[in-house]
Amino acid sequence: MAPASSKPLTLSLLGKLSLLLKLLVIAPPTLLINNLRCHLLALFRGASLKYYTLCAFNKFGLRHLTPLQLQHMKPPTIVYYKSWVRKQSIAAIKRLSTSNGTPKPEDLVLSELKVDIETLPDGASSLLWLGDRTKAKKVVLFLHGGGYAIPMLPGHINWCYRAYLLASPGDVAVAILQYTLVPHGQYPTQLRQAAAGLSHILSSGVKPENIIFGGDSAGGNLTCSLLSHLLHPHPDAVPITSLARPVAGAFLVSPWVSTNTSTASYKKNNGIDMLSTATIDTACGHLLPKDLTEEDKAWVMPVDLPQERQEAWFEGLDKVVSHVYITAGEQEVFLDQSVQLADVFKKANNNGRLDVKVEVMKSEAHDWILLEGENGHDGDATRRMRGWVKGLWGFK
Q1: For 218-232, how does the pLDDT look when each residue is reduced to its tens digit (9 = 90+)?
Q2: b/e for 214-252, b at 16 or more Cβ within 10 A?
Q3: pTM flag (> 0.90)
Q4: Could you give the percent of the chain with pLDDT greater than 70?
Q5: Is 96 inside any structural domain?
Q6: CATH number of the domain that residue 191 is part of
Q7: Would you tell me how many other CB atoms lie within 10 Å of the CB of residue 297?
Q8: What is the pLDDT of residues 30-44, one digit of tens each?
Q9: In the chain, how many domains are there?
Q10: Residue range of the domain that includes 121
Q11: Half-sphere exposure of residue 12: CA atoms within 13 angstroms, side-chain side
């Protein structure tokens, strides 16, 4: 398997010139076409037009920019985390100091945020904490998406704050995994880091029933890989075989779980979704090493396996997790594979001990909860996620 790169890769001068050319020449007509297509298809299908402009912009970046170009345009995950925490904390403290009425719960939560980073054993990954991990009763391990090529976005951290910290202020802390992006490291680098993160949280004394983990898109892929690792320890990752109880839950938002780009939902939604056949084919080439075997695919792209093998692979999932929450949009290319994964989970664990909740929303395309966070909205997808967490842990 391909190890993480020991020599940092940066965008070359040629890469910067290429980026400038793409932004000046390719972007304007492409964005116009993307916007027209996305909005017309949404209108024709009776879907809400909200966020489809953002879909069109994301579609351009994901399709035409390389991982290094995308990373050149975004601050690293740790840099953005530090900036967000400090900015939100200072603003909340200021609002509280000038408020004459009852303090808002949101400001009380934000005012207590502090930068808290734990470096994991490999030295290249870390846990970025939101909330006080020394006082919190529950922990969410958050695995952000972005095709393994894009750092954490504002929408991710807003999502964590709104869906998890506000689910029960003071009771929940979120550990955001900062992991190695491509091309700096291919699979299974990220699985190794996610397993180390979960192992660290468990070894710190947090009980499995007080842990939820999950993520969106590539983060959903990493979530599925981590579930597989709990069932079948990957030889390159720290084993987690001593769970006294299953972890409380796992959430997979628009999960990327297959290399197959010829399903019906790909054909139907190529034009409206931010993702496309070409985008995923390219992303698979960046993530997956050339020597990936069919056996390895079970950990990283399980829906590529024959149906019988999928069910056999996930048999006993109820022993490592109690609740699974899978969401997808009717307008996204991953729809069929998300639904298939949910069906596999149910069929492989039909003893009633594993609760699998699946939501497919008509107006939504890929990763809608992220788009709500990007717009700073406490939208329907965010409220549904918060409701799932509150119900799972019995919060009022």
Answers
A1: 999 999 999 999 999
A2: bbbbbbbbbbbbbbbbbbeebebbbebeebeebbbbbbb
A3: yes
A4: 98
A5: no
A6: 3.40.50.1820
A7: 17
A8: 999 999 999 999 999
A9: 1
A10: 13-74+116-393
A11: 3
